[in-house]
Amino acid sequence: MAPDLDELRAFTARLRCVEACGDAGLGIEWLDAVESLKSVGCAVQAVVADDVATCMREGRKARGLPRAEWGRGIASQIALARRESPNRGGRHLGFAQAVVHEMPHTLGLLRSGRLDEWRATLLVRETACLSAADRAVVDRRLCSDPDVLDGVGDRGLVAKAKALAVELDAAAVVARYRKAVSERRVTTRPAPDSMAYLSVLLPVEQAVCLQAKLGRG
Question: Which residues in the chain show pLDDT less than 50?
């Protein structure tokens, strides 16, 4: 039986009381256990976020609202519940829908604590240009066996996902790259003490060259 909300809140309250134990070995075990808990929590949030969106859309549809209204504001409410800015809600919802509906093995690794939220996000990001069927292939080949990604760093994980994406649909990967290049831009935002941040979005090879030139300036 799944724990109810009161159980979860009670457990959270108990965790708030954890203090240093004075035992390095036990401390390492605590770190490992809490890391697994964070991954499980990410999986739960994904499942719940997807369910919230589904329930809200179906409710609005049942009330006869126009299709354009079915999804309005849902991502912002999810962001609010996660105590993040509204513009991050769309990312959270997109991640949730991807792992729940198209990447069951990734979701399974999250639930088991063998994959953390960031690495799952990398997999979702690198397969975003693929069809649901091709994305499912990447999910199965990288995450159906937990040992496949054991000892593989973030760069290695991204490289594996990219290689599979190219193998499955090179045209989609090229189209994604061209779209990214078309969105290159320079932006500024204010900083303290009459300063400003200058941000440049460029293809990586151009960015490296620009950084080298600025460094010699």
Answer: none
